[in-house]
Amino acid sequence: EDAEKSGYDHYMLKEIHEQPASLNQTIHGRFDPTDESITLDDFEPGEFSDISRVEFVACGTSYHAALYGCHLLGQRGIPAYAHRAGEYASNPMPVDDETLVIGVTQSGETADTLESLRRLEDTPARTLALTNVIGSTAARETDDVLYIRAGPEIGVAATKTFSSQVTALALLSERLHRDITGEPSAHSSGLLQSLGALPEQIESILDSDPTAELTRKYQGMDAHFFIGRGIAHPVALEGALKFKEITYEHAEGFAAGQLKHGPLALVTPNTVVIAVFTGDHDEKTLNNVREVQARGASVIGIAPEDATEVAATVDDLIPIPSSTPELNGLLANVQLQLLSYHFANRLERSIDKPRNLAKSVTVE
Ligand code: G6P
């Protein structure tokens, strides 16, 4: 087993460090930066021209990737909604022949996600599996499949597969826009250029890894709240999920604007708030940061390195290289993976096999 970890203490850390390579696999041959064409495997150009809305079904980390996908589609004018598969399986929504339902599932075997997709069998909706595992049940049972090509993931806490899911969804969103409207979206050039730079930018985060230091400063807190707005919202949810899964410490993710509708009552000087910034809506999230600071909480900001006002406001800054706001969320998430890993490692938790959790939940 030690040999399989390639010198890393845990599979999770190995898989975090594999992300530059796994993302290169995800994007390989799927777009050409010179003419900005997108070739998604065997999908013909115009393949999705009849689609008018997208519904996602997914669980856990894959649900957060789906929520991220909703933002990418929404910014391209395509209505999209993400359902928790456990709910959808019991309460499916009306669909028609212009609906594309995407099951996001790393393993392709999660029972709730499979059940949700099966509920659509006798409907006119088109189904697509976004999965990592070739020949998995989701891949076999849906109309179409798009593989994320992240390579095997052993750690129970999903890391590199989230990044590959979001990256594949970014390409698929742009492709849907082109098929539906006949032209690239306003975000197209920025997205494709930034996608090409992403693996190297992640490499630079991994090389500097500034989060280990913070685990000393913030140990023994009562609660860890992760907040974000827009694309930073699913990233905050994913940050909190990863944190609670492997540290067993209390962590919750909130939409930043939701704080004053309840969670603010829980904020004390023994709360740490981790605020995610992508370059979009930063000013509003900074107001939320000031609100929690006024109640004694400390704030760790994760933000693009050129976000000077964020740097001046938060108590500690974890910088990310600057990309497009659409992909800054992915870069911020890599820092959150490292933050959770270092906290859990300091607490000597069972990082690769957290208590009570399974890599793939095959029962409803
Ligand atoms: C379990 C795992 C999570 C994963 C979720 C969905 O809860 O512990 O890491 O995100 O299942 O798995 P899937 O294979 O469908 O992406």
From TrEMBL:
The active site is at 359 (for fru-6p isomerization activity). Its EC number is 2.6.1.16. It is an enzyme of class 2 (transferase). This is Glutamine--fructose-6-phosphate aminotransferase [isomerizing]. Catalyzes the first step in hexosamine metabolism, converting fructose-6P into glucosamine-6P using glutamine as a nitrogen source. GO terms for cellular component: cytoplasm. It comes from the Archaea. It is found in: Cytoplasm. Residues 44-182, 211-354 form the SIS domain. It comes from Halohasta litchfieldiae. The keyword Transferase applies. GO terms for molecular function: carbohydrate derivative binding; glutamine-fructose-6-phosphate transaminase (isomerizing) activity. Homodimer. The keyword Transferase applies. It catalyses: D-fructose 6-phosphate + L-glutamine = D-glucosamine 6-phosphate + L-glutamate. The chain holds residues 242 to 605 of 605 of the full protein. One of its GO terms (biological process) is protein N-linked glycosylation. Keywords: Aminotransferase, Cytoplasm, Glutamine amidotransferase, Repeat, Transferase.
